[in-house]
Here is the input.
Amino acid sequence: MTHYLKNTPWDQRTLKIPTYELTSAEPEALQQTNETEGHFTVKVDPLLDKERLNKYGFYYTDTLITPVCKRDQLHLFEKEGIAISSSGDKQTILDIAGQAFVHGRFHRDFQVPNPLADLRYARWLEDLIDQKQVYYLYYQDEIAGFFGFDGNKVLLLGMDQTFTSRGLAKPFTSQACLKLLSLGYKELFTSVSAINMVSLNLFSSIGFKLKGAVDVYHKLNGKPLTD
Here is the structure.
């Protein structure tokens, strides 16, 4: 029998139960979730008939949009006093993360307590910092935000609330994207929740084009989660 469950240890260490992402939404794959305890994620084409997902206990969590930007499409914005660096104070970034992630799919999952969702994203960011996959965003020599990435994918973006409404988002994001493109990539892409209009508008304003979407469904098979 083909095994359709891919372990996601980065989620398991926070939820404290086995966690998986399905590699298929075919009935045989969905049936395996009935035979295994844990938390499951499956990403599907929005046009897929969802009846089979509901039959196996999956519930809608989020829709993820994929903005893409080619090198020659990037619109650069400048702002005096900003700087993009690969180094900075780790704890400052983690403190900012505590207020940055409110649109994540785990925050939208009614089966996952918000403190666990917060911890999941904070740990993800910490992993990226340790792997040297974060740019520190400075404004007038103070850390104002972060830009996390993996290869040519923009993963996490956040800014300290004390620096919002200063016209920094477009300069920070476009200049960080330029720094990433300078590594030799021909295009960048990211994944944004359909309800996160601020981020979608931000990426669109600097040249990203919306290309494709997936619906995300979760399932919890076992005891309720507690924080």
